[in-house]
Structure formats: C-alpha cells, structure tokens
Structure of Amino acid ABC transporter, permease protein, 3-TM region, His/Glu/Gln/Arg/opine:
Amino acid sequence: MHSLTAFSEPVLRWGGDPSGGAPYVYADPANPQTYTGFDYEFAEALAREMHLKAEFVPTDWESIVASLQRKEFDVIIDGFEPTEDRAREVLFSKPYYLFRLQLTVKRTDNLITSLEDCRKHQKTVGTLVNCAASRLLDQGGYKSKAYQDPVGAYQDLELGRVDAVLMDVAGEMFYARQNPKLKAVGKPFQTGAYIVGIRKADTLLLGRVNAAIDTLVNNGTVERIFRKWQLWDEEQIKLRTTKEPVFEMTNTKLNWSEGLIKLLKAASVTVLLAFGAMIIAVILGIPLAVGQSNGGPLTRALCTVYIEFFRGTPVLVQLLFLYFGLPVIGITLPGWLTAIVGLGLNYAAYESQVYRTAFQAIPERQWQVAYSLGMHPLLAFRRIIFPQAFRIALPPMTNDFVALFKDTSTAFAIAVWELATAYRELANATQSYLGIGLVVCCYYLAMSLPLAHYAHKLEQKLQRKSTGILSSGADK
C-alpha cells in the first residue's frame, strides 16, 4: 500500500540545504529569520497548486536523500538532479527547470577560453560536490577541486587557489556575473534538469506533484519565478513542448578498484595533515606550558588567553577564519597548509595542558638537584625534567594524536580533499554509504591502530628505563 503521509495533514514538507543554497534557498538578508530563493518560491507555488501549505525543513545537502527516507520531510526541492544512483532510492518528478553549465575564470586570464583549455593546460577547476559539473569533470579526467558551497569556489578563484570554476548558470549568475574580478568564458553548455525527489513508496504523491508542475509550467508561474531571478532562457520552452523527460540521467555506478585507490590517496592526505599539525602542536605546546606555569605575569596572561581561545572556539570556525579571513590582510595560504596550521594551533592549546600537568608531576627537588650539579635551567630541563615529563605525557599525547586523525575531517569546510571528504564525495555520488563507509573506517583504523600500538610499546620501554629494569631482566 502506498504511503499517504503527505496527505495526512494539509502540509507539504520539503527539504533543502540553506547553508550553501543561494540562489536556490537561503536566509533572506533583509529578514534573516525567513528564507528566499527561486526553489523556495517554486516550492511555495507547488504546494499552493496542490492545495497544501509549504513547510520548509532545513537539512544538510550530503544527507538529504537519507533524510527523505527517514521521513523528515516529504519531497526534496533544492536544485536536485536526477542520477542513476538516486533513481535507486527515490522517484523523480518531471523537470521544472533546465539548467546549463557555465565556466568562469579571472578577468585577467586570457589563457582559458573553454573547458578543454583547462584539460590542455592542466588547470584546476572548482565546482560543487556531487553535481552535474563534478561528474563531468571526473569523467573527463580534469583536475578538479570540490566545494561544499559556491561561495568558497568563487572566492578561491579570485584568490588564485583554483584556475576556473564550473557551475550551474544559477550559481554563476548569483555569485560571479556581477563580480568585476571574474568573467564567464564560452557559452553555457550541457543541459541538465532540476526535479522534485520523492520516496519510492509515495507514487500517489508523485502523480500530484507532476500534475502541479504541468500546471505551473503551462500557466506561466514557473516562467514568472525564473524571470524574477534572471534565470529564464529559451531552454525552458522545452518544458512545454515535450511530455517526456528532456534530460539524461548520469551514470554514477562505483568502480570499486578506482574508488579504493581514490580513498587511499585521500588517506595519504589525512596522514600529511595529522602529522604536520601534530608537529606544530608539540613544538608550540611546550613553550605554552612552560610560559603558563613559570613565566612572568604578562607571559602567563598571554599563554592563558591563547589556550582558552583555541580550546573555547570550534576548530571548524578557526579553519574558516584562517582560510577566508587571512586573505583580507594579504595572507593567502593553500587549503592543505591552512588545515595543518589551523589544526596545529588548535591542538597546541590542548597539548600545552598535557605538558603542564606532566611538568608539575616532577618533584621540585629535582630542579634543585640539577642546579647543585652546576646545570643551568635549560640544561636541567633538557636532561632531567623533560625526559621524565615525556613519559608521563606520552599516553594522553597518543590519544590526542588519534583524535587529530579524526579531526582532519573538518578540513572539508575549506575544500581540502582528505579521507572524510573523499567518503562524502563517493557516498553521495553512489548512495553506497554502508560499503564505502566500512572501507573508510578500515582506513582510519589502519592509520591509528599501529600508532597506538607503537606508542604503547614506547611507553613500556620508557617505563622500564625509568625503573632501572633491563629488558632482559624484565623477561625473566
């Protein structure tokens, strides 16, 4: 029996992601408590035509299909494109808008005149994750960089972090067309469609949605909405002149051998981020710990402010600040370096507290003994205090390092392609969340378990040395 959930009350609940949704659906700058966008207006018109009240349910784009399946809302309306993997999970309505792709470069760039030039000159093209443009770039063998929202892509184009951006005309119109630093090259190409996504069981709802779309297309409501947003073009006439879908679904079946290789490459980036950030955290954490414990009043205050700031604010916000904020003052770092520095600065605050506790665990008399032997403070610290404190600090350091491996996933927000980002891309493109997720978990375990095992062995070795027991004697 088909589900009639959508008709149990006079409400059509529709899901969309407002965090990166302009001009689809986003918070209205004039009234941030409400939303606007062409998809928002279309959803309102669709619900009215169905004699229902539209209710917007904000959700995350990457889990939007799963949220639909969990019945958090009734339909998906958010620039939703038909693909083969999605066809296995949801029903597709008739298209209500036909989009094309547009390539954008910096206004000073005279080398790139077409997408083919990007492949010819090995230029990096930015685009959104899991969209028609990203699939085109992947299948064509282009160098690409995926973003969670259009803002980051076009900002990176301005800053020279990517050489071009390929996006739907809707995104290009809203974010790039009026930007004097950017320009569109070539004409829009490759037609795709935006459709309404509906649960497989809701076939009756699909029929009502399709009937409402036909009415909105034929009575001019769709044209009025998209003309308002400056998105109407001659391509939309096809919606009236044909009864069959005017788009082709993209084949997104996962090639597991290539997928595993892609995840392995992403895992290597995760290792680079984790080790690079931990080196910074260790090097910076020691002077922070010493300064907070034994420094003068000003030094203690500065160290405390640093530690509380980085422990009291989310690492994701810190990464976004470094990535998008520093260019305002002329400092532009690549994404991977921003992630290493940001995570390193954040974890330095936590490591400093580990070291401070370890230093305080060393009896004060050991400093006095070192001084009586003629050692100056730095030598006493290096030869007497630090080796003992290191043995105490090693277990929590290991825990922090394992946690750092997982926190590298926050780098997705600044378009760093690491293991968690690769998982999102592949899982969203294929809807194979379980299979790919298990593989990714195995990759994380393969990186963290040997580290934990080695740290445990090192801890035992240092403990034996500290008690004066030789390894051979310990085995007897």
Notes: The domain at 256-475 is CATH 1.10.3720.10 (MetI-like fold). The chain has three domains: 5-96+195-241, 99-192, 256-475.
